[in-house]
Amino acid sequence: MTKLSVNINKIATLRNARGGNNPDLIKTAINIELFGADGITVHPRPDERHIRYDDVYALKKIITTELNIEGNPKEPRFVELVLAIKPHQVTLVPDNPGQLTSDHGWNTIEHKDYLIEIINVFKTAGIRVSIFVDADTLMVEGAAKTGTDRIELYTEKYATQFALGQKENAVKPFTEAAILAHSLGLGINAGHDLDRNNLNYFYKNVPYLNEVSIGHALICDALYLGLENTVQMYKRQLSAT
């Protein structure tokens, strides 16, 4: 079964826009789990423009499914947070400090030695590790040499081509990357710009998919369709129908 992890960064963005605690991030996370999500994802950034570091400590106390923390391990504070929280999974992303959103995967060849070292830090603490990579066979092969448990396929290129009506070409490199990753003993996650229009096709054509992480599109849909209904609609996309 492919799991749905809901990224709640946008809930925190809305809360932070006016200060206070409306919407209530913790209550929203509890409800998202109750509505059927398999996990909660957060991506704290140095400026805390959405998820704050103290949010992550609060979430750790109430999460009943899986907690996935994304971030750049070259930020010492991020590493300290993850080791203190000990989430089910940490996803390592090569973001710059002021980056608006993630837009590329690791060069697993160039950064091999660094990734081996930092991945070992988290795995020694008993945390499952996933690293963000593009759907490139060389990067997947490189990832397998780092000791990571999983890769997260960066799906923006898929989403862009899918929207242009080129869905077969869009999904092909992801299918190939997933088959290769599985053969190398890696688990497979995916995320970025997946939505309720392109998710089912991706699911049906990318084998061995353990988890998708979706935030922006899901929260936007919830404005029109309601949060409970939206979570369940996304869950239904993760079926072969």
Topology:
Blueprint lengths: L2 E5 L1 H10 L6 H10 L4 E4 L10 H10 L4 E5 L4 H10 L3 E4 L19 H13 L3 E6 L3 H8 L5 E5 L1 H8 L3 H17 L3 E5 L7 H7 L3 E6 L1 H10 L1 H11 L4
What's this model, at a glance?
This protein is an alpha/beta fold. 47% of the residues lie in helices and 17% in strands.
Description:
The chain has 241 residues and is α/β, with parallel strands linked by helices. It has one domain (3-237): Aldolase class I (TIM Barrel), CATH 3.20.20. Helix content is 47%, strand content 17%. It has eleven helices and eight strands. The chain has an eight-stranded parallel barrel, surrounded by seven helices. α6 (137-144) packs parallel to α8. The relative contact order is 0.14. The mean pLDDT is 95.
- In the CATH scheme, the class would be Alpha Beta
Distance between the termini: 14 Å
If strands are numbered along the chain, what order do they take across the biggest sheet? 1-2-3-4-5-6-7-8
CATH architecture: Alpha-Beta Barrel
The total beta strand count reads 8
Which sheet architecture does the biggest sheet show?
Answer: 8 strands, parallel, barrel
Form type: globular
**How large, in whole angstroms, is the Cα Rg?**
17 Å
Unreliable segments of 5+ consecutive residues: none
